[in-house]
Amino acid sequence: MINPSGLTAVAGIGYRQYKRGTAPLPERGVLVSAIVDACNDAGFDPALIDGFVSYGDDKNEPVRLMPDLGMKHLNWSAQVWGGGGGGVAGAFGLASAAILTGQARAVVVFRALVEGNSGRLSTAVMAHHLNDHMVSAGMVAPAQLCAMRAQRLFEHHGVPTSVCEELVRASYHHGSRNPEAVAFGHEYDAAEARTSRWIAEPFRLFDCSRENDGAGALLLVSSELARDLRKPPVTLLSVAQGAERGWGDLLENDREDLYPTAGFGAIRQRLYDQAGLTPADIDVVQLYENFSAQGVASLIDHGFCTYENVTEVVRFENLIADGGRLPVNTSGGNFAHGFVHGIGCAIEAIRVLRGETANPVAGAKTCLLAGGPGSPTVSSAIFGIG
Amino acid sequence: MAAFSYATATGPLGAEGPYWDALLDGHLKLPRCRGCGAWHWPAVWRCGECGSWDHEWVERALTGTVFSHTRTHHAFAGTEAFDRPFTTVLVSLTEVPIRLIGVLEGSEEGLRIGAEVEGRIDRTRFGTHDIPALRWRLVA
């Protein structure tokens, strides 16, 4: 077996984001735009793309992208299972596997979502979990399922709700400084957040991610090829996806200790071992947060803190790019940058390592991309530069 | 496999057909492997512990403790059957290592993780369906 660490790299990125309902093109048109942006970023001819990977039930079958891109051959198309954002990082593993086994040469990882075409994301995600058991109990939305897990995290495991506010506040701090973000120019108002309407207790409106129209595309190639392209390669140091026994859409019968987690305990060791790194080696985190508590649970799962010391780590001052030891969501994340099913987190992982972010992290060499928390199948990746 | 008649409101049925039929009949029945005695929930066709395909559906009492809970305020489509806000509880059954979910009725005083509850079988209107449903009440 080969260790894939460092052998493939992101050479180009493209990202288009719009307020929900305002995309200038239908979904596939927005996606093609993002892919061409990624190729221009890399200095790579779109016609030479030969593979695609997505996740979260993306509706854009790769073969339909060929005419607009001028592709002659499609050699690889794959998608990580699951309706949520659990597969966003694992998608890079599929792309890397194709490249390292010679089955494809230039693979685009993408996610596109224009809700006039694909409908509301939350509805699509929930379709995976809806069943008569849940519906009979009034449980029809991801927010409710995550709320119930959050309640146990707070009430039984003693994690204070205040850490969620710290995470949201740090996200808005970054988003307010990012011209691309939905929260650009808007400072976080704690009083407004604390009195915002309840969604499903313990979640208020500000604990929930937004939904946007848009598309993101990241061009993955061998690290060797990436060195000949326009931008500094950001190498894929590690990627892992999966689940463990006692986890995974079990009618809320997950193993008792796993229930309040985000599910990443199953992949944490593989993730760090592949790169030969530990949590202490991670310079910056792009954290997929569907809801605030699941973001915190993900940080705990990934080994950045524990139930006991979470308040020491998940602090506003510690989470911001300007001075924090664990900068998180430097674009504003799903809360304050925008939400195209988490592909923006992957885009920001590359931007922050290249120094192209609105909230630079001085000297950052490693960035952990944590995929959708609480998904039946979860995944994470670590990227590096230089 | 036991025969069943229940038709779902929301998509394909798993291995839990007899569960729904028992609820329609006014009883809670849950599956236990005849090979090794393991309880399985969600229901399975094959026991992953011992490989048996044979399960018996055993009647159990609707008593337990709150494992977690949430109070829904937002008007999510599909929750029209309930006056908002309404509280959903996840209940650890007393007799078997299984959690079941349902809406809480009656007083919410004393609602907390670990609180004792007892349940009854009702129906939840969903579109044109009446789904058999569990309702829970805090034990004073």
Walk me through this protein's architecture.
The complex is a heterodimer of chains A (386) and B (140). Chain A is an alpha/beta fold and 386 residues long. Chain A has one domain: Peroxisomal Thiolase, Chain A, domain 1. Chain A contains 16 helices and eleven strands. In chain A, the strands form two sheets. Chain A has a nine-stranded mixed β-sheet with strand order 3-2-4-7-1-8-11-10-9, sandwiched between helices. A two-stranded antiparallel sheet of chain A has the order 5-6. In chain A, α8 (162-175) packs across α12 (292-301). The longest helix of chain A is centred in the N-terminal third of the chain and has 16 residues, at 27-42. Chain A starts with 7 loop residues before the first strand and ends with a strand. The mean pLDDT of chain A is 96. By secondary structure, chain B is mainly beta. Chain B folds into two domains: 1-60, no CATH class; 62-140, Nucleic acid-binding proteins (OB fold (Dihydrolipoamide Acetyltransferase, E2P), Beta Barrel). Chain B contains one helix and seven strands; from the N terminus they run αβββββββ. In chain B, the strands form two sheets. Chain B has a five-stranded mixed beta barrel with strand order 3-4-5-7-6. A two-stranded antiparallel sheet of chain B has the order 1-2. The radius of gyration of chain B is 16 Å and the shape is globular. The model of chain B has no long low-confidence stretch (mean pLDDT 95). Classes of the chains: A alpha/beta (386), B mainly beta (140). Chain A binds chain B through residues 127, 130-141, 143-144, 147-149, 151-152, 155-156, 197-202, 250-253, 259, and chain B through 8-11, 14, 20, 41-42, 67-74, 76-79, 81-82, 85-86, 88, 90, 98-103, 112-113, 124, 126, 131-134. Chain B: Residues 20-52 form the ChsH2 rubredoxin-like zinc ribbon domain. Chain B: It comes from Novosphingobium kunmingense. Chain B: Residues 57-120 form the ChsH2 C-terminal OB-fold domain. Chain B: This is OB-fold protein. Chain A: It comes from Novosphingobium kunmingense. Chain A: GO terms for molecular function: acyltransferase activity.
